[in-house]
Amino acid sequence: MDPNTRGPEEYGHDAGAQSSRQRPPRDPLTTDFGQHSPALARTVQLVSGDFLLTVNPVDGSEIEICPPAERPARPEKLTPAARAEADRAAKPPVPPGPTRSAPHLLARQDEREQLVRKLARGRSVRLVGSPGAGRTSLLDLVADDCADLAPDGVVRLTGFHRGPADLLYDLFHAVHSAPLHRPDQDELLTLVREIGAVVVLDDIEFGGAALDELLEATPECAFVIGATPDVPAPSTESGIEDVVLGGLDRAASVELLERGVGRVLTEDELNWAGDLWFESEGLPLRFVQAGALLRQRDRMRAGTDAVDEYGVLQDAAPADAPFDTPFAGDTGAEEVPLPSLGEAAGPAPLLASRLSASARTTLRFAVALGGEVPHQAHLPALVGDTHADAALGELADCGLVSPVGSRYRLAAGVQAQLEAAGYGEDIQDNALTAAQHYTWWAGHPSVTPERVCAEADAVLAALGVLVPGTTPPGEDEESPAVRLGHTAAPAFAAGLHWSAWERALRAGAEAARLAGEVSEQAYFHHELGILALCEGRLDRARTELETSVGLRGALSDKRGTVAGRRALALVSDRSGTTPGVAAFAATAGEEVPDARYEESQSPPGGVPTAFPPVGDSTTLVTHQASAPSSPAASHKGRGGVRQFARRNLVAAGAGALLVAVLGTVVTLGATSDNDPDTPSTQVGVNPSASQGIGDDSLGADKAEGDDEKPGDTGTATSRPTDPGPDGTLGTSDDPTPTDGSTEPSDDPSGTQGSGGSPTHSPTKPPSSPTKPPSSPTKPPTTPPTDDPTDPTDDPTDPTTPPTDDPTTPPTNTPTSSTSASGPVPSSPSVTTSSAGAPTSTDAGTPSTDSDSVI
Q1: Exposed (0-12), middle (13-18) or buried (19+): which is 374, by Cβ within 10 Å?
Q2: Is the separation of the CB atoms in 594 and 660 below 8 Å?
Q3: For labelling, which of 240, 339, 658, 773 has a CA lying 20 to 30 Å from the CA of 815?
């Protein structure tokens, strides 16, 4: 991959699919060349504890309970060859340039033997030394001496920006072969207890109880820990002994300086070295840097022509060029004096001024990134020079950078010295350049998540610089910090570097908030909720996911909202609480393209019925599991009726929606009265009526003077009439309408008799047919009689008593109705012939009398 040539057709990142289709191939034999489709979003599926996590950089990661078929087998330990490869990857890369011999440690043999003896006994020890005391170099030698002491060999770890949990996972993956598998806490502790290795842990940043937790989790490991004096000490119960690493004596310091220069020092240089030893207290780093100053002075005295018009060496000779004899009588000897004691105490600006332009630019990027030196493969793209990768070798020879884990950082004190010299004036510009480069690189399909994780500190440092100064971008623009966070965070998650994942998400969420990008802010909060759910922090997960769902709901992001609500349902299942309204709304009747629908088990307490009767809380028991004696005894808070499965939530939500729709339809059908002359208001559902003598209409009301049915009890009331001027209903004293017709009442309740049922006047004849009164909430299921609420009425009895008056219209009796709970069986109807004799017929069967009308 060439980071300088970012061709859109080459990788399919920036060119659309349409442009590639419009360009026909020149040669039919090579149709595949140049026909690349746009790269798809990189999704990675991994197992975290009981969860199956799909890292989706577009809509947000999806999480579900891992199916049994997807669960990985028990991790196996690496073979010796694989362990050797892992140990090589844990070391920093060798800088390009001539092969350099390994440095020899001086006056450190006693400390070296002491450390090896303690580790051979299985005891852990802590090596305490000031920055620049040579602690890392000594630990490398001790690791080589202990290669055969433990069955799992030597494991190299770095504690820089790492906590106890991170180190346990690093130790697990350094010994076991478990790709895309992150065990939960219990499984992790079980696996690391079986590891027997010598763990070389450098640059640790914690002590006390946290260190005790790390040691207790790995009882079969022997630790040799490198720490600075400002790191908290371990507890007295840990049993860790400290080995203090001090400075070198004067003789050893002079010897180290001569090894760095490659020759014997002159008298003036010896005096200068003595003053430096007194000022630096014998720190080896100072003498490594002093040796680089003397080498640069020797080259300048040699009259080299590699100095440009600014007096800077552009093409310096190899750093390890031998100098067998001291210089004497050279032409420029008096023109290049020895550095002052102040320059020797803070040599970084002077050393940098004599390096190549690429090396100086690399130092500016390192200062902008908080001391993190980008990998040498990124330097050509960042610096703009194809040979800029050689700058790392220059910096390492001068002692300006030191190894930290598998990468390099500015050496102790160099950051402050370069900032004082003006190397920090363009921090924002350099951080922006680095952020743009890392955004493109981390999102490239050829870059693996493991490579992105190796550059995690540099990426996070760029975010740390850009986020505080984030402002709302212009139209068709994106915030660089938001883009970098969105691109790098999925790679950190897929690479199982979850501490970097969390830091990137928090930085991205803050940048999105400052930039006003609501959709990106919702994405970061969703990912934070997923991370918290994987780590068992359920309250935090619920808060983050609810925030994300709210933001995405405001944006009408249906796919993202469904992903968030699914995760919320899983949080509720784990926490033992009933899903909230948001979780119900997520699954009740909401259809999303390409959404997955998972099957789930029924809750142990049973499934609530979709259509429970009013006032009834009956539960349909499908499988009754043995419930624990108390809620605390349940497995991780799951079980019980409150633990709704998602499929049951869909049924319950759909049932509630169906009930509401049916109730609305029935209510509208019962209360609609827009046209009084419609046939539906004139004839009942299944009546048999006769034509009156003095009236051309068909009616079902009793005529004036009709006697009541024998045996009937109750009070007689007037029939409903039109509402009066005040909108109330009354009884009509006029047996005939004034305008030839009677408007049906808009109020279904009307004037009611006992029991709340409308009745008709026994003394007033109806002026026109009236529709059966109906309730807006519950349609009548029995024929309206004087007492329709009496359950003892016989449905087969005629509703109208026999009469000699042929003009008496029969009662318009509906025989069937529909309620929300289902159809009601029809009751037999009564047919009245033209002679007034009632005849009982089956419901739905028309009368055979020629004068009757259905």
Answers
A1: buried
A2: no
A3: 658
Select, from the ranges 20-29, 150-159, 581-590, 675-684, the one with the highest average predicted confidence (pLDDT). Answer: 150-159
The label of the residue with tokens 């009942």 reads: 684
- pLDDT at residue number 617: 37
Per-residue pLDDT, 101: 62
The partner residues of 199 in beta bridges, in order of sequence, read 155, 223
The secondary structure of residue 418, as a DSSP letter, is H
Q: 769-798 pLDDT, tens per residue?
A: 444 444 444 444 444 444 444 444 444 444
HEC-encoded secondary structure of 790-816: CCCCCCCCCCCCCCCCCCCCCCCCCCC
Alpha helix (H) residue ranges in 72-152:
80-89, 109-120, 135-145
Please check whether residue 147 is in contact with residue 120, taking contact to mean a CB–CB distance below 8 angstroms: no
Q: Supply the DSSP symbol for 28.
A: G
* DSSP-assigned states of every residue in 482-545: HHHHHHHHHHHHHTT-HHHHHHHHHHHHHHHHHHT-HHHHHHHHHHHHHHHHHTT-HHHHHHHH
Q: What is the pLDDT of residue 474?
A: 80
Beta bridge partners of 47: 52, 181
Phi, psi of 370 (to 5 degrees): 70, 25
pLDDT of 671 higher than 80: no
Q: Please say whether the dihedral angle defined by the alpha carbons of residues 208, 214, 219 and 223, taken in this order, is positive or negative.
A: negative
- pTM reported for the whole predicted model: 0.64
The torsion angles phi and psi of 786, rounded to 5 degrees, stand at -65, -30
- Tell me the DSSP string of 326-384: ---S-TTTTTSPPPPHHHHHS-HHHHHHTS-HHHHHHHHHHHHTTTBPPPTTTHIIIII
| Residue 563 pLDDT greater than 70, yes or no | yes
Residue 783 DSSP SS3: coil
Identify the three-state secondary structure at position 723: coil
**Amino acid letter, 817:** S
Kindly report the CA angle at 800 between 799 and 804, in degrees rounded to 5?
160
If one counts every other C-beta atom within 10 angstroms of the C-beta of residue 609, the result is 15
Angstrom distances, CA of residue 193 to CA of 10, 93, 175, 216? 48, 31, 12, 9
pLDDT bracket for residue 669 (50, 70, 90): low
| C-alpha pair distances (Å), 720 with each of 251, 314, 448, 667 | 121, 109, 82, 20
CB neighbours of 420 closer than 8 A, spacing ≥ 6? 346, 349
Largest distance between two CA atoms of the chain: 153
Specify the DSSP class assigned to residue 635.
G
CB distance 426 to 466 below 8 Å? no
Any idea which of 73-87, 147-161, 454-468, 647-661 has the lowest mean pLDDT? 647-661
